[in-house]
Specification:
Elements (H helix, E strand, L loop, with lengths): L7 E3 L3 E3 L21 H13 L6 H8 L12 H13 L6 H14 L44 E3 L12 E3 H12 L3 E4 L6 H12 L8 H24 L14 H14 L4 E5 L5 H7 L5 H6 L18 E7 L4 E7 L9 H16 L7 E8 H6 L1 H7 L12 E7 L8 H4 L16 E5 L3 H18 L3 E6 L17 H9 L3 H11 L5 H22 L20 E2 L2 E2 L11 H11 L11 H15 L2 E2 L1 H14 L3 E6 L14 E2 L7 E2 L12 E5 L5 H13 L3 E6 L10 H9 L1 H5 L6 E5 L14 H6 L15 H8 L13 E5 L11 E2 L12 E2 L4 H4 L6 E5 L3 H11 L6 E6 L7 H10 L4 E9 L5 H11 L6 E6 L10 H15 L11
Parallel strand pairs: 6-8, 6-9, 9-10, 10-12, 11-12, 16-19, 16-20, 20-21, 21-22, 25-26, 25-27, 27-28
Antiparallel strand pairs: 1-2, 3-4, 5-11, 7-8, 13-14, 15-23, 17-18, 24-26
Helix pairs in contact: 4-5, 7-17, 7-18, 8-15, 11-22, 13-22, 19-20, 19-21, 22-23
Family: Belongs to the alpha-ketoglutarate dehydrogenase family.
Keywords: Calcium, Glycolysis, Magnesium, Metal-binding, Mitochondrion, Oxidoreductase, Thiamine pyrophosphate, Transit peptide
Catalytic activity: N(6)-[(R)-lipoyl]-L-lysyl-[protein] + 2-oxoglutarate + H(+) = N(6)-[(R)-S(8)-succinyldihydrolipoyl]-L-lysyl-[protein] + CO2
Length: 973
Amino acid sequence: RAVAARGSRDAGNGPRPAPPRPSPPLRTSEPFLSGSNSNYVEEMYYAWLENPKSVHKSWDLFFRNTNAGQAYDPHLPDQLERKASFLQSHGLAQTPSKAEKLVEDHLIRGHHVAQLDPLGILDADLDSFVPSDLITTIDKLGFYGLHESDLDKVFQLPTTTFIGGNENSLSLREIIKRLENTYCQHIGLEFMFINDVEQCQWIRQKFETPGVMKFTNEEKRTLLARLVRSMRFEDFLARKWSSEKRFGLEGCEVMIPALKTIIDKSSEMGIEYVIMGMPHRGRLNVLANVIRKELEQIFCQFDPKLEAGSGDVKYHLGMYHERINRATNKKITLSLMANPSHLEAVDPVVQGKTKAEQFYRGDTAGKKVMSILLHGDAAFAGQGVVYETFHLSDLPSYTTNGTIHVVVNNQIGFTTDPRMARSSPYPTDVARVVNAPIFHVNADDPEAVMYVCSVAAEWRNTFNKDVVVDLVCYRRRGHNEMDEPMFTQPLMYKQIHKQVPVLKKYADKLIADGTVTLQEFEEEIAKYDRICEEAYTRSKDNKILHIKHWLDSPWPGFFNVDGEPKSMSCPPTGISEDLLTHIGNVASSVPVKDFKIHSGLSRILRARLEMTKNRVVDWALAEYMAFGSFLKEGIHVRLSGQDVERGTFSHRHHVLHDQEVDKRTCVPMNHLWEQQAPYTVCNSSLSEYGVLGFELGFAMASPNALVCWEAQFGDFHNTAQCIIDQFISSGQAKWVRHNGIVLLLPHGMEGMGPEHSSARPERFLQMSNDDSDAYPEFSEQFEVSQLYECNWIVILLPFRKPLIVLTPKSLLRHPEAKSSFDEMVSGTTFQRVIPENGLAAHAPHEVKRVIFCTGKVYYDLVKERKNQDLEKQVAITRLEQISPFPFDLLKEELEKYPGADLVWCQEEHKNSGYYDYVKPRFRTIVNHTRPIWYVGREPAAAAATGNKNTHLVSLRRFLDTAFNLEAFEGKTF
């Protein structure tokens, strides 16, 4: 709309100022020509003032021919009459406003009456109401001020519609017909909520233009062949393994040609790598007919006698495959990510891996790598991670430049009717929050599905934004093949049992129109059946099964050097003092000219510089050193999470902000060397589940990267527990999925309450896979072999494991929590255990008690020991690596103090923290000959108190117990 001060250009008279904008009148229900709908004319007038071409030529001529010197006022009846007289005298079409309103109503609400349900019994939008402004019968013409006698009158078409093709006007009858064909048949379009006119017009042109949805005979034959493969694959599995769960695709067999159409079209536009995520339904079919996994490898998974292979059910497994796309003759790589039964959990993982692949290829616009996510209707509407993932879609450090979402809309969730499963009209309504167009389509109309999928691929390539294809279908069997759906959906399944399969319907159609013959169709079926039988025969040879066939993120060249496995060793991790000093100096500087930082930050940088000069580091500077040394070696570092740029506790400050120039920032870490790997540090959306999944996916792409996710407080990882349980802890065991992601979880009991204290270390320890009762055989390679067999940790090793780090809070500024350069220079390594090195260590036989601990409580214990003058009688040993348990080093410590009491001290409550994990392992080391006593807080339901005084009282209580050398005398073991 024009602002009055902008003015406009009148025909032949040069620019003239726009008149003041009058207050809009009230609408009436009278016909337009009698003076109503002036709001509509008013809007058109102001649009014309801004751009004369934005309105139909009839209105342009009318506004230009207004009486000289008299500004047009849309509220004056005489001017409305003059408009009507002008149109009539020039032989122009009847009131365009009526045609425009008719078009507008169909494109906004036409999807509500589209014929989307293949069964014909449900409404895809859960509402049988037909909007009164949609033309369905002649008697509703009156809504627009029209009558049956107007049906054969010619109306001028709005310039914004494409239903006329090359024609500017059509009869009302033809307008209605074309609108209903476009918006009310087997495709329902939702896009008018998009606030971008160009994007809306692009969609309208794709669907409104007459004749756009036409296919050549060759395209139809290809579609039929793909449907044959999709359906006959499911039929083959049903015949061979009738009593096995396989979560077949029956009822939505069109999904296979739909995915292949998206991939074909995307390959045609330059895509080289497609990363996919999906739930279990139809996964085996996708593996077979989209990814093109060898059928014998799939059939192997049904053989109960085969013990080799992955540790999960077959319909959760992933796959990576490079092949030639037959439609384009271009090389394409396809990766289907493994996924648990937690359905949508894979969504952010796919997005993270896609972002990483784009990043390492320099594909900033997403023209080479893209993602496709498949969803079930109930999960798409019900799972919060879907919303979290959508909200990553346009964030600079998380966008994948558009994802194509395909919803397999079975119109049921397990046994739950959609009317009981969601509050929104469609399961896809969550996509509206990011202005993603939504294309609903009847899955029993294969050609409509193919066209929609082709347009979706073009949309993603053109606008680099998400798009949703909603395949409205049905589920021919129950939730799984053993389930009985008639218990809960009797009427739906009576109709399903009568439903003609889509393959037969489409084949009959092509045979009837002469595109294929019955013989050709039967030969296509026989051909694929023969392929399946031959693969079934080969599958009985158990030698063909190899775990490499189920990798979804292979790391070629990482595990071997010149064809030989890398040596199993833990090399030193220290770096030269010159490098430490250089990194410290950059960390203390602002490497950009004329950049003004906050005065408080200047003090922090000066303190860093002072520490560097004194050859000591605190936690924040040590982190800088670690990241910087990786960058020099060409290893990309990515740190993500809520407030990570500054750090939750204002300790990190990896991104500096100019105090005088908005959005001007500096990342000193990217100014360490001219030739260095990039450092990515990015604040995330306020999400844990989605963002941790994203970073996990990012870490899958390359082993030569350090990917870290930091929780704002360690407690907050609990809302991402699904990712931790299903992907991080068990991913390698289930799916041979290697990953080096690092979780940084601020932890410490400081009286800050149950939601800002504990990172719940007991949960991670409970999921650790080492055996507390197995006494290990020690060797030179014990440390490496132990790390190789565990399920999480990572250091400089020839393999990758996830690492859980319980990071400090108060210790970030504790004067004693610092380390010397001497502990970090060349030749040094990570210390799994830090033994006592004070007075007690020099006279171990005089020591009466050895206190083992980890984390912040060490500094409380050291202070209390000094206050009680017990530095000779009590030794304090720290565990820096808790899992896998350092049996070898602790065995040395225990043997060093043969006459001392053994105490485990922790600040966490007894039913939390580390005690239940370390106690049986200490007992295994001493063969149950010596007790390991507990000192700490009593069991509690909440992780911590929120009362500072209560916190200090409990701290005082367990410190007194820890140094009471008679506390355990006389107690039985």
